[in-house]
Every structure is written in C-alpha cells, then in structure tokens.
Design a protein that fits this description.
Blueprint lengths: L8 E5 L4 H12 L3 E6 L4 H9 L8 E5 L7 H13 L4 E4 L14 H27 L5 E5 L13 H21 L5 E7 L12 H9 L9 H12 L10 E4 L9 H4 L8
Parallel strand pairs: 1-2, 1-4, 2-3, 4-5, 5-6, 6-7
C-alpha cells in the first residue's frame, strides 16, 4: 500500500457535537482538510473549528446534511469533491439512539433508527467510492456502539439491532474494498460524557458509571483518538475490525469475581 500524504482530505458525517465534534477537531488540529456535516451547522461552530487550523491554506468546510435524506449520500460525495478536491478518509458518526420499550415500538420508530444508523452509512460509502478509489490510502471509519454488537440494554432494542447491522455491513465492505487498498473499520464506544446524556439524572449516571471497571465515563476525545488511529498509516493493515473503547464495561466479570486475590507468593 502506498504511503499516505501528509495532508489528507477528511469528511466527518455528524461532526458538530459530542464524539463527532471531537473527531472533527482532532483532524483539523492535525492539519488535514476537513468537511464536517450536521443537520445544521451554525457559522459559529464552523468558525470555532477554523480557529484550530494547523496550517496556512487549510480547508475546513461544512455541509448542512440530514443523513437520512434520500439525496444525502450524493450531496456528501459532491461536497467532498467540490470543497476538498477529493476524499481520503470517510468518518461516519451520524446516529440516533432513542429509548423506547420493545412493547411500544412502531414501524416508524424502527425505520427512523435504521435509516440514520445503517442505510445512510451504506449509501454514503457507496456514493464516496469513486473518490476513495482515487486516494493513495482510503479509509472508512464508522462509529458503532457496544449496545447491540456486544451487549444489550433495555429500551434500546431497535438501536442495538441497528448497530449490529452496521457492523455486518462494515465487515462485508472491508472484504469488498480490500483489493483497492481501502480499509473499513469501526470504533465501538461505551458510555461517553456527551450532550446525549443530559437529562439522565445523577442517580442514573452513577449507576451507569458503576458498571465501568475504570470508574468513569469515556471522554469524547478518547473515542476520537481511536478514530484517528484507524484512519492513519499505522493502521494500514487493519480492516474489518472493531476497536472497543468502553473502560472495560463489556468484560464478562472483574478479575476479583473470577479469581481469589492472593499474595505475591501465590
């Protein structure tokens, strides 16, 4: 595989808040040309990212995009071509995670989650392939979750199903695109301290934190660091894989629950 150019062209779908904002900021601060998308991208948000630019002439552009809209994939590819002049890295972070008991789910509920979390990502990759084929080292990185692929949580059955489907797509895409030197991987965060947890309540957050062996929620930057790694040259021989960043939350049991604690002499 060819070495990556020092400056890369990166698209971050769902790049304005939470994990997505951390991903956008990470690539901007590294000096790459970045196109970020969101349902709406306030000018003040775009200007904030532009102040983080690491070099003269660096391009930091924005596209207002509803990921579930029928034309979103074509608009994304068109914007990457016209605003960045190509595409090397496609980060797919847009997603929704509504909570609803299984007994209350409707057709519309399920369709909405799958449209954003699965279908939009499949179509985005397909639409951007002509650009990624032209890259010296194309990268696709999806933001997944521990919910669905690894574990389950009550009230998130439709969300968990969508994330499991997302990883099925990721693995198949990795096989299809490997002959072209394009890698496809995913990052699966556990619970992350983002705006999405606002309103959950202190008691709920305390219970959530108690399930994490490292004793705290993940920081958005820690997820972004994993995305940056998978998009970089050091991950050039990694494809079809999931990097779980959850502080040990999905480990089956703590070591103390499995083995007795002994002294140095065993």
């Amino acid at each position: 595989m060819n070495s990556q150019p020092q400056t890369r062209k990166v698209a971050v779908v769902g790049g304005t808040r939470g994990i997505g904002a951390a991903v956008t900021s990470t690539f901007v601060r590294a000096g790459h040309d970045v196109l970020l998308t969101g349902r709406n991208v306030p000018q003040v948000v775009l200007e904030k990212f532009r102040t983080e630019a690491a070099r003269e002439g660096q391009r930091v552009e924005a596209l207002a995009l509803d990921a579930a809209a029928p034309d979103s994939a074509e608009r994304l590819a068109g914007a990457a071509s016209s605003l960045l002049g190509g595409l090397d890295v496609l980060c797919l972070n847009a997603g929704i995670f509504p909570n609803k008991p299984l007994a209350e789910l409707t057709y519309a509920d399920v369709r909405e989650v799958f449209a954003v979390n699965v279908e939009s990502q499949m179509l985005a990759v397909a639409a951007c392939l002509p650009l990624l084929w032209e890259s010296a080292a194309g990268r696709v990185v999806l933001t997944s979750s521990i919910t669905g692929p690894v574990t389950g949580f009550p009230g998130w059955s439709h969300y968990g199903a969508s994330k499991a489907a997302q990883l099925g797509f990721m693995r198949t895409a990795a096989l299809e695109l490997a002959p072209f030197g394009i890698t496809v991987n995913a990052v699966a965060p556990g619970n992350v301290a983002t705006e999405g947890l606002d309103g959950m309540g202190e008691e709920y957050l305390a219970q959530m934190t108690a399930t994490i062996p490292l004793g705290r929620l993940a920081r958005p930057q820690e997820i972004a660091d994993a995305v940056e790694f998978l998009a970089g040259e050091r991950a050039s021989f990694i494809t079809g894989q999931v990097v779980t960043v959850d502080g040990g939350q999905t480990l089956p049991e703590s070591p103390e629950a499995v083995l007795p604690v002994t002294g140095a002499g065993g």
